[in-house]
Amino acid sequence: MARIVVDVMPKPEILDPQGKAIANELPRIGLDGFSEVRQGRRFELTVDGEATDEVLAHAREAAEKLLSNPVIEDVVNVSVLDQEN
């Protein structure tokens, strides 16, 4: 059994009001030094068996066709989180 993680982020040219709200709040709670925050989404896909290159390719295809909106988001990561033997 393996888990694959998929990270999706808004494209750089897309406004991110949630990220901006978080960035504005950080100094108010005493956490300075962050110039920008972008908020994305994370998916964890569990597969039976090993996360082979073919399985990762299918995960990337799922990310590009279903898990993300390609008009406003980029798939920035598809990787194996952990594998059990």
From TrEMBL:
Q: In which pathway does it act?
A: Purine metabolism; IMP biosynthesis via de novo pathway; 5-amino-1-(5-phospho-D-ribosyl)imidazole from N(2)-formyl-N(1)-(5-phospho-D-ribosyl)glycinamide: step 1/2
Q: What class of enzyme is it?
A: ligase
Job description of the protein: Part of the phosphoribosylformylglycinamidine synthase complex involved in the purines biosynthetic pathway. Catalyzes the ATP-dependent conversion of formylglycinamide ribonucleotide (FGAR) and glutamine to yield formylglycinamidine ribonucleotide (FGAM) and glutamate. The FGAM synthase complex is composed of three subunits. PurQ produces an ammonia molecule by converting glutamine to glutamate. PurL transfers the ammonia molecule to FGAR to form FGAM in an ATP-dependent manner.
Q: Which organism is it from?
A: Kocuria carniphila
Q: Which PANTHER family match?
A: PHOSPHORIBOSYLFORMYLGLYCINAMIDINE SYNTHASE SUBUNIT PURS (PTHR34696)
The answer on whether this UniProt entry bears the keyword Repeat reads no
Query: Keywords for this entry?
Result: ATP-binding, Cytoplasm, Ligase, Nucleotide-binding, Purine biosynthesis
So what family is this one in? Belongs to the PurS family.
Q: Which Gene3D superfamilies match?
A: Phosphoribosylformylglycinamidine synthase subunit PurS
Summary of subunit composition and partner proteins:
Part of the FGAM synthase complex composed of 1 PurL, 1 PurQ and 2 PurS subunits.
What molecular functions are annotated in GO for this chain?
phosphoribosylformylglycinamidine synthase activity
Q: Where in the cell is it found?
A: Cytoplasm
**Cross-referenced InterPro entries:** PurS, PurS-like_sf
Q: Where is this protein primarily located?
A: cytoplasm
Keyword Cytoplasm on entry: yes
Which reaction equations make up its catalytic activity? N(2)-formyl-N(1)-(5-phospho-beta-D-ribosyl)glycinamide + L-glutamine + ATP + H2O = 2-formamido-N(1)-(5-O-phospho-beta-D-ribosyl)acetamidine + L-glutamate + ADP + phosphate + H(+)
Q: What is its EC number?
A: 6.3.5.3
Q: Name the chain's protein.
A: Phosphoribosylformylglycinamidine synthase subunit PurS
